[in-house]
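User: Can you fold this complex?
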Amino acid sequence: MQARKALDYSIPLLSVAAALGLWELVSQTGTIVERDLPAMSTTVSELWTLVQTSSFWIAFGQTVRGWAIGLGLAAALAIPIGIALGSSPLAAAAFRVPIEFLRPIPSAALIPLLFLTLGTNIRSEIFLATFGAFWPLLVQTMYGVRDVDPLAVDTARSFGVGPLERLYRITLPSAVPYIVTGARISSTVALILAFTAELFMGIPGLGQKVNFAESFGLNEQLYALALATGFLGVAIHFAVTRVERWALRWHPSQREAVA
Amino acid sequence: MSARTYRITKVAAEVAVPILILVGWQLWTISADDPKFPKPTTILDKFQELWLFAQFGTHVVPSLERIGLGFAIAVLAGVALGVPLGLSSVARKAAMPHIEYWRAIPPPALLPISIVLLHSIGNVQKVSFIAFFCLFPVLLNTIDGVRGIEPTLIETARSYGVPWHERIARIVLPAALPQIVAGMRNSLALAVIMMVLSEYFSSTSGVGYVLLISKNTFQLVPMWAAILLIGVLGYVLNLLFILAERRVLAWHRGWRAATPQ
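Assistant: Here's the predicted assembly.
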């Protein structure tokens, strides 16, 4: 048992170490020119220099802010609308076609429009993040509400439970697993679009820093920033997974398998 | 309200609401009279003029080629990597940190790097970029699909002396197929997004390029037509995929249950 545990940790660690070593080797031996792929050690020390500057952390915070506001707004809009569309087949039919047409539009296609309307500021970033994060949450909420056990709803109704209480006690709890899945997808989308808006529109944040590094040919900084952005993505992913576990702690899917 | 009138109301609503939205949009653009928001009818005229099919060959075809090639590479690589990773828990433990990292990174962060590393703003860079990020949905779904196979099936085949490549071709791949296809559908939607992003960054052709150029030159109606084109492209590709999926997975009794949405 103990040996197995050790293996669980040592294999991923060794694998990461091997990949970092390979990166160092490829660059040091000149298989890929140092200018195109700075060595791992160079990139990490560049990142170390960056994280000691306040401008890096300001940009980092700006990207996180775009993500958080976008995701929050998307949730505030998509969950109530999803509940309404999910509980009324008539409303769902009425908006089926517009939703099916708007949903697959890549949000990035809206960037030129945002340049001309909201301008190159945080409002565009938030709009883009909200627009992208809205759809997965909406669709998941609709499915979740539709999937509620009708017997449970009818039983509550025959016991004289009012519509608001039915929503709070039956519909919402049974839709939560779907909503949480939607939130996990939306969280990734919101981060991608916040970063995209910064990169393409020059809105302050990590994306804008990448844009500068690219324009001035600062390749070491380019790699260090991409590395940092990846860590931000991983951190947000872990945070959302933790929240998901907490929100679903009562749900069978979170029970540990007995093996 | 009887069941019949309710059904009729539902169909009427499904037809009427989109029409009302379009009419409302048209009326609003007429009253606003803002060059940034051309009338939907003007956009449609431009759409027809540019994309059916005057510039289809110069810009839509390159974009479709990039999507097709990137998607195909992603599917092949995703299945080829996903099957061994699904079968071996040691390989999975070794690969997971890398998979978790690369799929969490916002793709545009790698756009400038892909140009620096590949010395290209042409098809090599665009297709690699699309293929790299479309890999993950297929890869993760293949791993999950392979892990979900009843171990008795594989063990039985092994004890009957079925060689390993036959076991993969006859048991593992068919059993994992519904989930692989679900991953492919996500990948295809992603491919359209990655195409737009990569062409919007630096390029000389493609739908994303048209979008960028028309914005930079303040050609607002062509810009709207390009946005519409990208929307239609995403919609049609998804539709074609669902139709193909129904045919390919018709044999799979539980395919509806296995691939929600």
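The mean pLDDT of chain A is 88. Chain A touches chain B through 61 residues (CB under 8 Å).
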